[in-house]
Amino acid sequence: MTYTSPLPVTEGRFYEGSRLQIDNLVMAYGDVDVIRDVSIAVEPGTTTCIIGPSGSGKSTLLRGVNRLHEPKAGSVALADDDALALKPDLLRRRVGLVFQHFNLFPDHTALENVALALRNVKKMSKGESRRIALARLTEVGLAERADHRPRDLSGGQQQRVAIARALAMEPEVMLFDEATSALDPELVKGVLNLMAELAQRGMTMLVVTHEMGFARKVADQVVFMDEGRVVEAGTPDEIFDAPKSDRLRLFLSEVL
Ligand SMILES: Nc1ncnc2c1ncn2[C@@H]1O[C@H](COP(=O)(O)OP(=O)(O)OP(=O)(O)O)[C@@H](O)[C@H]1O
Ligand SMILES: [Mg+2]
């Protein structure tokens, strides 16, 4: 599968991504450690895909990076800042998170869903928030659907609204957790194309995905996690064509 951009890249903005560095992270639910000494560095403007079996800790790791669940030990650096010392609200403005479920307000249009976030978080005026919301919706190829409510949009379009809402915060890093896994198969490609486009435009991205074709084509680095640890990390060629561990070989034999 090839990824064609919804917009010619030259027409799009370029992003100024920041470096994200996770070192020796440990996270637990109660007494059970589910992230055990994880270190991952994502260079500015690059995409790292995290793959691994269910329950390996992928979602928990992303939740730790933007502090929806506080890590127990280790460090997370965003550019030159200690992400674990920033105010969580400020951190979440700098690190966008897109989930499987889009959590849009059903009674508001696509435009208002994005604009409301700008007014609430960035304290913008109504006019300014709507102007920027329309620009971000245009960026995700949805300008013509701006006045539709979520129920009148396809799942893929709703996910693109959620991505536009995250982009509106001008994040330095974007985290994606299975952003396409709730979508009907025919809608997956449009969202993956958009994510590939963001990667091409210099967004720093940490992407949990089951889409191995996407990881192979778009990732600069692929990280394989199992049982809360990084088992292997490398380029897509290294991970997919020359896996070193039995665990990764077994995983790939099950998913490819
Ligand atoms: N809120 C929670 N309370 C207790 N344990 C949890 C909680 N959320 C996740 N876990 C456990 O933590 C471990 C890691 O879960 P996590 O959701 O991070 O895995 P995952 O790799 O994202 O899996 P999947 O591919 O199924 O989404 C699992 O053993 C899971 O059961
Ligand atoms: Mg998960």
UniProtKB/TrEMBL annotation:
Extract the PROSITE patterns matched here: ABC_TRANSPORTER_1, ABC_TRANSPORTER_2
| Any Gene Ontology CC annotation | plasma membrane
Per the database record, which ranges form the ABC transporter domain? 20-252
Q: How does it sit in the membrane?
A: Peripheral membrane protein
Report the domain of life of the source organism: Bacteria
| Entry-linked SUPFAM superfamilies | P-loop containing nucleoside triphosphate hydrolases
Extract the Pfam families matched here.
ABC_tran
InterPro entries named in the record: AAA+_ATPase (IPR003593), ABC_ATPase_HisP-typ (IPR030679), ABC_transporter-like_ATP-bd (IPR003439), ABC_transporter-like_CS (IPR017871), MetN_ABC_transporter-like (IPR050086), P-loop_NTPase (IPR027417)
Name-wise, this protein is: Amino acid ABC transporter ATP-binding protein
Organism (species): Microbacterium tenebrionis
Cite the source lineage: Bacteria, Bacillati, Actinomycetota, Actinomycetes, Micrococcales
